[in-house]
Amino acid sequence: MFKTLGKRIFKWVGYIFCACTALGLAVYAIFMALEAAKSGTPLILILKAIMATGIAGFLAWNARQLLTDRFTSSDQERHFRKSAPPHFRKSTSLQKPTPQKPPPQKLAKKDLKPIIIDGNNVFLRGDPNTMPLHMMVKTLDTMGHFVHVFFDANIYYVMRNNDIMLSGRGNHHTQVAAAFGLPPDMITIVPAGSQADHFIIPHAQQNGGTIISNDRFKEFKETHPWLNTSGRLAKFDVINEQLSVPNLALNVSLR
């Protein structure tokens, strides 16, 4: 706890120092350029302005790196290997983790259905990490189901607060997708001020899909009685690094 807090304080102090120094040098560079324009021998002033601009740019870049938790690519890789689930540690790629066991066989077409996953609910089950959701989606997709994941608007910050490494490349949507090893078009992060439940239920109702979540959706059952229908809600569990969704005959190792 104290170690993590110390790192965050160090990053913010470093960010503030770099940002303020970069701003000061930028102002100095502008001042030197103006003086050079007025002076009869502007060469030395122009050189000072160029040097100040270069240093300001370098510090501004470092400030951005600190703000996005990307010190260097090697630091990122070391942090990822340390904090990622075991399945990911053998690969430096966030996008293409590969399961150790053979994938399940595809189901018959009549047994396939749309699967809507409550992303925050799966991610925050027990000790938060990306492995259960990644393997859940990958296995269901391999079986032939049509899978989509909905996240609450705060998922990016929830992941950061749980020390999940994000790439820092692209917007929040692509970073969250990459951290889970999923294609961006397979996830939806609902708008700020909204709850994923209000998107999950209409989507499942419209497509006749099954919702994977340990949430009981009690407040919705009166207005959406189909939630009481057998097979429309599927609970999941993770015991001894084994992920299971009994209603969908899913049982896969997270090792």
Supply the number of helical segments: 10
Q: Any idea of the CATH topology of the largest domain?
A: Rossmann fold
Q: Provide the number of structural domains.
A: 2
Distance between the termini: 26 Å
Overview of the molecule:
The chain has helices at 2-38, 43-67, 73-83, 86-89, 119-123, 131-143, 155-161, 172-179, 197-207, 218-221; strands spanning 114-118, 146-151, 187-189, 210-212, 233-234, 237-239, 242-245, 250-253. The protein is of the alpha/beta class and 255 residues long. The chain has two domains: 2-67; 85-253, Rossmann fold (3-Layer(aba) Sandwich), CATH 3.40.50. The strands form two sheets. A five-stranded parallel beta sheet has the order 3-2-1-4-5, sandwiched between helices. A three-stranded antiparallel beta sheet has the order 6-7-8, covered by helices on one side. The chain starts with a helix and ends with a strand.
